[in-house]
Amino acid sequence: MTTVMRDVRLLRVRQIGRLVSTEDGPVPYQLLDVDGSEVRPVSDYFRELTASDYSPHSLRSYGLALL
To answer: With b meaning 16 or more CB within 10 Å and e meaning fewer, what string describes 24-57?
Structure first.
């Protein structure tokens, strides 16, 4: 079996949004769309998870999956 090495430095991925840390906010993360606007349904979902005592690590994982 031959292993092929690819140079991922040349890989370009279209930005569709981003997950940002909200250190002083009511939830630990916020999902923003490509224009930098809050994705409101995701923020509502994160608030529910935070109120249910989910780990900030879980919210981060869910946010990255939603991207």
So the answer is: eeebbbbbbeeeeeebeebbebbeebbeeeeeee
Q: Quick check: 58 pLDDT over 90? A: yes
Q: Taking a C-beta distance cutoff of 8 angstroms, is the pair 31, 63 a contact? A: yes
Q: Which contiguous run of DSSP H or E holds residue 21?
A: strand 17-21
Under a CB-based contact definition with an 8 Å cutoff, are residues 27 and 59 in contact?
Answer: yes
How is 28-45 classified by DSSP, letter by letter? SEEEEETTS-B-HHHHHH
Give yes or no for a contact between 36 and 43, defined as CB atoms under 8 angstroms apart: no
pTM (predicted TM-score):
0.76
Residue type for position 46: F
